[in-house]
Structures are given as C-alpha cells and as structure tokens.
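Issue 218. Parser rejects a valid record. Input:
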Amino acid sequence: MTRIGSVLHLVVAAIFVICGVIFAMQPDARIITDAARLAAPLLPPVAPTSIAIPHLYLNPDNLLMWMLLIAVWMMVMLDAVGQWIDPSDDEPIRAGRPRVWPMLLGALVLASVWPLLIDNPGVLTLASVAGAVAATVGARRAAGRHRPAIGFLAGWATALASAALAELTAVQFGLSAQVVSAVAILPAAAFGMAAQMWIGPSVGYSVALIWAFCGLAISTMGSDPMIALAAIIGISAMATVLIRAAS
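Output the parser choked on:
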C-alpha cells in the first residue's frame, strides 16, 4: 500500500468510527428490549413500533453490545495505524497474494452509511450484506498476516447483515419479535461456519460472531425461550469452528 493509500485507509477508518459514535450516542425510543426493561423496571409498558434489531448492533442497549461496538472501532483504528507504520500490502511482505485494502476500504465505506439506512430495511440489507461479503473476503486475504481486526470486523458485519435480513423478513411477513430474533442468529451462524472455514486460521471472525450472539440474546431472550435456544445453537456452532481454526 502506498503512502497515499495508507492515508486513505486512516481517513476511511476514522469516518467509520465517527459515524458509528454519532449514531450510537443518539437515543432510540422505537423499541424497548428486555435489557432496557431490566435496566429501567419502572418504565411503563410500550409496544414496540419496529423490530429494529439492527439498532442493537449500531445503537446498543446493553453493556455487552457496547463493548462489542467499541472493540470493533478500536480494532479498525489500530489496524489503520498499524498499516501506516508497517504496511503488509506491499511487496515483498505480500508475496504475490491479493491485496487486502480494496476489500477492507469497501467494507468500511459501506459500514459508514449503515446508520443512514437504518429506517430502510431493504437498502440496509443490501448494503450490509455487501459490506459483510467485502469484509469476509478481506479477512480471507489477510489470514496469516497478523491483522485480526479484519476478521473481527467481518464477523460483526455478518451479524448485522443477518439482523438486517431478519428485520426485512419481519416487515414483509409480519413476524413476531421473538421469531425475528431467532432468524437474526441462525442464518448468521450457518454462514459464519462456512466463512470461518474458508477464511482459515484467523479466529477474530468467530469471536465477533459469538460476542454478537451473546449480546443479542441478552437484549431479547427474556421474552421467549426460543431466542435463548437459537443463541445457544449459534454460539455452539461458532465455537466448534473457532476451536478448529485456532488449532
């Protein structure tokens, strides 16, 4: 990566983090999750007007989701700074392997606009799926180059893309919040297992997905045991491939 490319990487990473922080700090009253009810038991019961599961990744309602989001921001910025100091996309370090930065920058640009699309499930689904695919391809290319942030970003993006797809399905078919929460986990776990095997020895992808499943379960599983079961299945599946990738 040239010096100009390193600067562009830093700028795009900073834009991604700034957009994420601005949106995450905004209050969202459209959905009251189980975690919010536990935090404020005196709130009057209010029926949610939207499933809004992608909000749980971009505008967290519990500590675990906040920690995941902060971890994504920190790892993306540290990776950008690391590439400025010691780029790994240049020869001879790259050793003829595909460049990582085109996929990574594409994923970060798409991720930067996700908050703007949060009220448009169809467009958000397309943008989040495209971003998750770009990040996953980048993680595959970065495997073995000591850049765990890309796999971590890809895992988080996969979880959000599955949540966006679940919300779109809910809008189209009128599914309950409980069913949508389960739908947000199981497809991500199925895709995540295949993606982790394809990425290879880089455990960041599975760690981020497991973290996301735990956070989503905390926010929603109190309303229905099916959500807890889906979370357990997803976590178990990703733990299996995580162990295999680590070994």
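Fixed in the parser; the record now loads. Residues 16 and 108 are 6 Å apart (CA to CA).
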